[in-house]
Inverse folding.
C-alpha cells in the first residue's frame, strides 16, 4: 500500500497537480490528502486563485493600450534609415 | 492584421520599403516597450532594449520565413534583448524567499495556513484594481523569481523556453517558478482574504 502524502509533498508537486501532469495513481494520492486536510485545500484554493489573478492581470486586452512614445518611434526609424 | 496583410507587409519589409518599416515600428513599439518594462523595471533600459530589439529584427528580416506572426517574432527578440541586459547587470546572489514559502513541521505537515481565500474573489475584483495588486506583488519578488514568473505566466513562454532564456536547466526553471508562485500567493493573500471578509 502506498504511503499517504504529507503537506510538504503535496505542495512540492502542486504545479504538476494543477497543470494535470500527474499520473492517475499520484493524482489519487493528492485527492486523498486534500480530502483529509483543510489547510491544503485552502492552500490550493489560494494557489489556483494566484494563477488566475496573474492570468487575468496579464490578458492582452487588460488595461489601456500600450503607450507609444513618439521620440522612441522616431529614434528607431532614424536608426533604420542610418543602417 | 489578416494573414494576407501580414504577408504583404513582410514582403514589403524584405524589399526595403521604408513605409513598411514605419508601419512595423508604429504597430509594435508600444507592445515591445511594455514587455521590456515588465522584465527590466527600468524605463531607460526598456527604451534601449526596445531599440536594440528592432535593430536586431531589421538585420534578420531577410532571413525571417514568416513561420510566426511578426509580432510574435518581435516579442521573442525583445525578451532576449531584455534578458541579455539582465545578464550584464551586476550579479547579486539569489535572494532568499523562504519567509514567503509555506512552513512545515518535522513530519511534513503545515504549521500555519494563513488567511483564507474565497474561490471567486479574483473574478469579483475590477480589472484595473486586480492588475495593480498583481503587478505590485510581482514587483516585490526578488529579481530571479520575478523574471521567471514574468516570462512564464505573463509573457507566455513555456517552462523550457524560459529555461533557455534564463540559461538554466528546465528543472531549475520549473522549481524557481513554483517557488515564485508560492511567494506570490503569500503576497496576494492579504488582499484577497481581506476582500472576502
Amino acid at each position: 500500500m502506498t504511503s499517504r502524502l504529507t503537506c510538504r509533498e503535496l505542495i512540492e508537486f502542486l504545479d504538476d497537480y494543477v497543470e494535470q501532469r500527474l499520473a492517475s495513481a499520484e493524482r489519487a494520492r493528492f485527492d486523498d490528502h486534500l480530502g483529509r486536510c483543510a489547510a491544503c485545500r485552502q492552500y490550493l484554493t489560494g494557489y489556483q486563485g494566484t494563477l488566475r489573478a496573474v492570468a487575468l492581470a496579464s490578458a492582452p486586452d487588460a488595461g489601456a493600450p500600450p503607450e507609444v512614445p513618439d521620440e522612441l518611434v522616431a529614434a528607431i526609424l532614424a536608426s533604420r534609415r542610418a543602417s | 492584421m489578416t494573414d494576407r496583410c501580414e504577408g504583404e507587409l513582410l514582403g514589403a519589409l524584405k524589399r526595403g520599403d521604408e513605409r513598411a518599416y514605419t508601419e512595423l515600428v508604429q504597430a509594435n513599439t508600444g507592445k515591445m516597450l511594455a514587455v521590456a518594462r515588465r522584465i527590466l523595471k527600468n524605463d531607460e533600459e526598456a527604451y534601449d532594449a526596445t531599440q536594440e530589439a528592432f535593430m536586431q529584427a531589421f538585420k534578420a528580416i531577410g532571413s525571417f520565413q514568416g513561420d510566426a506572426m511578426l509580432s510574435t517574432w518581435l516579442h521573442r527578440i525583445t525578451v532576449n534583448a531584455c534578458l541579455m541586459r539582465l545578464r550584464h547587470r551586476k550579479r547579486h546572489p539569489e535572494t532568499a524567499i523562504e519567509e514567503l514559502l509555506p512552513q512545515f513541521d518535522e513530519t511534513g505537515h503545515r504549521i500555519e495556513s494563513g488567511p483564507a481565500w474565497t474561490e471567486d474573489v479574483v473574478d469579483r475584483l475590477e480589472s484595473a484594481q486586480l492588475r495593480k495588486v498583481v503587478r505590485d506583488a510581482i514587483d516585490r519578488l526578488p529579481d530571479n523569481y520575478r523574471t521567471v514568473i514574468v516570462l512564464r505566466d505573463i509573457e507566455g513562454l513555456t517552462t523550457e523556453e524560459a529555461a533557455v532564456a534564463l540559461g538554466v536547466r528546465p528543472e531549475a526553471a520549473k522549481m524557481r517558478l513554483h517557488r515564485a508562485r508560492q511567494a506570490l500567493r503569500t503576497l496576494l493573500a492579504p488582499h484577497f482574504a481581506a476582500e472576502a471578509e
Chain A has a mean pLDDT of 88. The two ends of chain A are 69 Å apart (CA to CA).
